[in-house]
Amino acid sequence: MMTSAAAEGKAGAHDGGGQPWSTGHEHGSAAVSILGVLLALLLASAAWMAWKPGWQVVIGPPEDPPNRIPVTAFCDAARQQGWDFAADGQLLRDLVIGLRQAGLDGTIEIWGRRCRTAPALRKPDEPLARIPATFWKHHELGGLGTVAAVTRAGNIETRTELTTDNTRVHTRPMPGSEPPPDDAGYRDIHLNLMQAMDWLQTEANACKGISRRGRSGTMSGQSH
Questions:
Q1: pLDDT value of residue 223
Q2: Is pTM, for the whole model, over 0.85?
Q3: Who has the most CB within 10 Å: 20, 106, 154, 168?
Q4: CA nearest to 69, candidates 199, 141, 139, 166
Q5: Which of 119, 124, 148, 149 lies closest to 224 in space, CA to CA?
Q6: Does 53 or 89 have the greater pLDDT score?
Q7: Coil, helix or strand for 94?
């Protein structure tokens, strides 16, 4: 038979709801068990990473594709920032010279679709490919705009109209240059967006008037 003291002691091991209190020993055992599981997981993870082949140890998404802008859209952005090609067609020539230098220096990455001289070798579905910086040593951009004759008050004036079809923008050899015989050209030219817009904000203005200094570079009556 249980004495009253024993009954009181047994009752003292319970909380008010009749549930037994956890002892300190039980709490310590639970903590040790959790730490043991975590340690085992860490060791297993380290062993797995060490065992995996190097090409599988890649964390994060693949590299983002380059952010490109068509040259025609870039020219429109330049027009909105004060490059008034309609009023001064020579500014388009200045921009062509500046972009060629930026491409040669590697300041702006430039892409295009390769196009062969022989029609039989041309492919309309050519992917955009990065144009090597050295390519611009012998080439420049063409097809960015046309010079049209406009009659105003009996006077004939020239007006530069920007090309809106980017597939018409292409590369062409520099006058008097001697590019490699197997050097194919490019069309549908695109620029690295961030690099091009940074160049437009920082270095492009220095190119204004460059075609009037030294060699004329005037393209009147021709496509830019």
A1: 44
A2: no
A3: 168
A4: 166
A5: 148
A6: 89
A7: helix
Q: What is the C-alpha R_g of the chain?
A: 36
For 32, the token pair is 């040790």
C-alpha to C-alpha distance for 197 and 78, rounded to whole angstroms: 9
Beta strands in the chain (DSSP E): 68-70, 110-115, 128-130, 139-142, 145-152, 155-162, 170-173, 185-192
CA distance 164 to 70: 10
**Among 66, 97, 79, residue whose Cα is nearest residue 192:** 66
Tally of CB atoms within 10 A around 77? 15
Which residues, 6+ apart, have CB-to-CB distance to 177 below 8 Å? Answer: 137, 138, 139
Half-sphere exposure of 44 (CA within 13 A, CB side): 6
Confidence grade of residue 224 (pLDDT, cut at 50, 70, 90): low
Burial class (CB in 10 A: 0-12, 13-18, 19+), 138: middle
